[in-house]
Amino acid sequence: MAERTPEKLVIVGNGMAPGRMLEELFEKAPGRYQVTIFNAEPRVNYDRIMLSPVLSGEKDYEEIIIHGDGWYIKHGITLYKGHKIVAIDRAAKTVTSDHGVTESYDKLVIATGSVPFILPVPGKDLRGVITYRDLDDVQAMLLAAQSREKAIVIGGGLLGLEAAAGLAQRGMDVTVLHVMPTLMERQLDPAAGYLLQKAVEERGIKVITKANTKRVVGEEKVEGIELEDGRIIPATLVVMAVGIRPNAGLAKDAGLAINRGIVVDAGMQTSDGDIMALGECAEVGGMVYGLVAPLYEMARVAASHLAGDRKAAFVHSDTPTKLKVTGINLYSVGDFADGDGREEIVLRDATAGIYKRLVLQQNRIIGSVLYGDTADGAWFNDLLKRGTDISEMRDTLIFGQAYQGGAPLDPTAAVAALPDDAEICGCNGVCKGKIVTTITSKGLTSLDEVRAHTKASASCGSCTGLVEQLMSLTLGESYNPAAVQPMCNCTELGHDDVRRLIKAKGLKTIPAVMQELEWKTSCGCAKCRPALNYYLVCDWPDEYADDYQSRFINERVHANIQKDGTYSVVPRMWGGVTNSQELRAIADVVDKFNVPLVKVTGGQRIDLLGIEKEDLPSVWADLGKAGFVSGQAYAKGLRTVKTCVGSDWCRFGTQDSTGLGIRIEKFMWGSWTPAKLKMAVSGCPRNCAEATCKDIGVVCVDSGFEIHFAGAAGLDIKGTEILGLVKTEDEALEHIVALTQMYREQARYLERIYKWAKRIGLDEIRRQIMDDAEKRKGYYDRFVFSQKFAQVDPWSERVSGKDKHEFRPMATVGFNQAAE
Amino acid sequence: MNWIAIGDISDIPLRGARCVKTPIGKVAVFRTAENEVFAIEDHCPHKGGPLSQGIVHGTAVTCPLHNWVISLETGKALGADEGAVRTIPVRNDNGALSIALENLTLAAAE
Q1: CB contact (8 A) between residue A813 and residue B7
Q2: Would the CB atoms of B64 and A552 count as touching at under 8 Å?
Q3: B9 — contact with chain A (CB < 8 Å)?
Q4: Which positions in chain A touch B16 (Cβ < 8 Å)?
Q5: CB distance from B67 to chain A under 8 Å?
Q6: Is A494 left (phi over 0), alpha (psi -120 to 50) or beta?
Q7: What is the pLDDT of residues A532-559, one digit of tens each?
Q8: What is residue A411's predicted lDDT score, i.e. its pLDDT?
Q9: Is the dihedral of CA A446, A452, A454, A456 positive or negative?
Q10: Do A810 and B7 touch (CB under 8 A)?
Q11: For residue A481, what pLDDT is reported?
């Protein structure tokens, strides 16, 4: 087939809907379009549903990016960041941005989303009054939250409550003003709204219902809100979350048909045959949408049309609502208003905080509200969608699927019983059959892989449990959901959750972690304490006071315990280079302390074995005088950087590998890492320093430095993966440091870099470290900051008297005393 | 009982241990997070690891060599492991600590 010139597709807006549309389009018709995107926000496409977890601190912005810069490059997309389109010329078929860029199009897609509704009250423009819509708003809120003062959120809907919970978690004193008598009245009935209000108040958030805002009080900056009844509530931050409306101004100016939103047909076509619209700005069948599932459905339809399939059509369906506030479970779908011919089934359990209500019409579920226990939400929704006649099981319906037909109370039974076309992931419209067949045909074994291949649970994540149950069902015993493996017997939480919650809740001591995360033991165990100590050291380098009783003996006394209770001592030899003066000092120590064994290590340095604990400070004192510092050969931290002699000596050497190795070691020594970290730098691909089986390695080549990582040569043997090639030594150092910091921040304690890399994906690491300069810089800076507190030689500290009790017996009891 | 003074409770870090050298070998003296004091032989029943160097949690210590967990109250290995070390009577008079050695046989004499 002859190649045809790509048509020009221009997209206005870079949110989740057009992002998804492009993914589908590139799959259906690769190469058909040359794509240009104008994004009014100065960034790439991110998961807007996850803004609340960013606000509460449970996720970072980086974690919610859907398409990194690399994705745009890979698909040849021109992305104008921070360009707002100000005019569409339909006759000339061009668009023009506020920065004066004009692009012509064959097909134009408008995806301008929505704008937050601002209450038209006096004072609405004061400083400190913001909306909750995009990352800039979140950043504004985070900035304001630093003051830990009072905040008001106007609007007790989904978004408002998430904002309130996030701000409260950040330490602000939050009041929610809601105009209706109960919270989230569009999604919840009053009973569930009441339970929700109680749960919100338990989080220290005040709720005022039936609150009509009269005006925003303040001179230049907001000082509070005055209600219609005269009450004044003080605040330094006001977040308006009272609703959104489609952003259709641009389309209107261009003369397209507008109603509430941009009017499109079921194929997403506007009144102009070459212009489509989708997302929150579009109005289809008289409806506008704000939840992600129907927007993704629009994306699928639009992509089909762009790929030439004219039959695809958007069909309305009810979308379940879930609240993303940790610890509050609620689920609602469909129509649950009272009415003639409607019946309801209600289950209440006040002590357990559970409320379930099903609304029936002609023996079919038309709505459901679940609070507290939402496990059966998917099943009820499935019955609703299918219009299943429930009269047979009516008596037990409310108890959920597990109670039907005498089925056993196996947690997976409910999922097993779902039909293949039952929807599991509402956000991405993925059904059970698709997940099961993908797991089988692609041989998937981990949740991350299932997310990557099917997108199920990849957006809001609330169906993760269901997806995992499906994996258990499909894979049987072989599926071991690593995510739920608890850290140890002291907690039900896994390492990842503990790490996340330490950050999210700002926990800065081990007792605080144990208290807040409800540890089951009073002071932990030998598994969790060292892990927690590491996480806290890593996350709060300047604030956390190292708990040395939570470190293994080796890290407590800075030497390696041997089987007979003596210790081994390994001084640092930068890059494996030494000299006569150093060797002489070592020889003197060997003689003076009768060191039984002197041995050269695999990491190019010298090990002194069999030293009595009481002698350690004196040994260190002598070594210190010769300029030696601790080699940290005992640490879950940076060990050695092994080198070859490189271009200074070797006839094959391409770069100064010794010099680079020393530079890396001097830059990174003292840093604590989840597990030991060994490195090497080889001066040419002959690789004499064996860099390709290290945690991180560098292989120098003529054109620069090839950075390797995730090798292993211990319990497992594994060659490294290539991170990428950089041109200069400076860049090599920056990339290695950033990679190390990413590993430090994300890995589980005692997880070597190759295991971590396998778990989170090599591509993801390359994307963050190689392709995303901003991210790389962030990691680099955080490492450098933490080094300010880490680069203290532990040996000289102890020579000066620190922890002296460690190296002396408490008492010596003589024979006479004992025998008396 | 013949009590031998060994020092003050503040000589031992919280959730830590110190050694007392005696003619019958080392004794490990522990101080828990709750300020209780225990003394046991500093010799893991498994491979002789120095228990005084382990991590102290609750009223147990984890041996630094192979992670056996030993009860400070009974001297017995906890969990699936089997074995025990001797416990040594210890007295705490307002922080002044003493141990009693007379009940021990001198089998371990150096």
Answers
A1: no
A2: yes
A3: no
A4: 549
A5: yes
A6: beta
A7: 999 999 999 999 989 999 999 999 999 9
A8: 59
A9: positive
A10: yes
A11: 60
Entry pTM: 0.56
Phi-psi region of A210 (alpha: psi -120 to 50; beta: other; left: phi over 0): left
CA distance A540 to A521: 24
**Residue pair A204/A168 in contact by the 8 Å Cβ criterion:** yes
Which of residues 71 through 100 in chain B touch A, CB cutoff 8 A?
A: none
pLDDT band of residue B109 (cuts 50, 70, 90) is very low
**HEC string for A64-85:** HEEECHHHHHHCCCEEEECCCE
Assign residue A361 a region (left: φ > 0; alpha: ψ between -120 and 50; beta: otherwise). beta
H helices of A122-274, where?
A: 135-145, 158-169, 190-202, 249-253
Residue (of B107, B105, B106, B103) closest to B1 by Cα position? B103
Of A523, A563, A817, the CB nearest to B65: A563
Inter-CA distances, A783 with A202, A402, A742, Å: 38, 50, 9
User: Which of A719, A724, A726 shows the shortest CA–CA distance to A687?
Assistant: A719
Q: Which of B57, B81, B110 is best to mutate for the A interface (most A CBs within 10 A)?
A: B57
Disruptive mutation site among B2, B3, B46, B53 for chain A (greatest number of A CBs within 10 Å)? B53
Q: State the first-to-last Cα distance of chain A, in angstroms, to the nearest integer.
A: 104
Residue B92 C-alpha, separation from nearest chain A C-alpha, in angstroms = 15
Among positive and negative, which fits the CA dihedral A131, A134, A139, A145? positive
User: CA–CA separation, A420 vs A31, rounded Å?
Assistant: 33
Residue A571's nearest CA partner among A559, A563, A555, A580 is A559
**CB A274 within 8 Å of CB A93:** yes
Contact of A521 with chain B, judged by CB distance below 8 Å, is answered with yes
Burial of A600 (0-12, 13-18, 19+ CB in 10 A): exposed
Confidence of residue A689 (pLDDT cuts 50, 70, 90): very high
Average pLDDT value over all residues in chain A:
89
B8: closest chain A residue by CA: A810
- The interface residues of chain A toward chain B in range 547-566, judged by CB-CB distance below 8 A, are 549-554, 556-557, 561, 563, 565
Mutate to test the interface with B, among A510, A547, A549 (most CBs of B within 10 A): A549
Please answer yes or no on whether B19 and A561 come within 8 Å at the CB atom. Answer: no
Q: Measured between CB atoms, which of B18, B33, B102 is closest to A810?
A: B18
Residue with tokens 């996340």, as numbered in its chain: A500
Order of strands, edge to edge, in the sheet holding A102-104? A85-89, A94-97, A102-104
pLDDT score of B50: 95
Distance of CA A372 to the CA centre of its chain: 25
Q: Do A809 and B4 make contact, defined as CB atoms within 8 angstroms?
A: no
* Position A570 pLDDT exceeds 50: yes
Give pLDDT tens digits for A743-778.
999 999 999 999 999 888 898 899 999 999 999 999
Interval A62-99: pLDDT, tens: 888 888 888 999 899 999 999 999 999 999 999 999 99
Residue A772 falls in which region: left (phi positive, over 0), alpha (psi -120 to 50) or beta = beta
Residue A298: which of A15, A27, A18 has the closest Cα? A18
Which range, A408-412, A450-454, A527-531, has the best average confidence (pLDDT)? A527-531
Taking the Cβ of residue A810 and every Cβ of chain B, the question of whether any pair is shorter than 8 Å is answered with yes
CA A322, A169, A143, A240 torsion-angle sign: positive
| Residue bearing tokens 């969608």 | A385
Sheet holding A597-600, edge to edge: A560-561, A567-569, A606-611, A597-600
> Chain A within 8 Å of B49 (Cβ-Cβ)?
yes
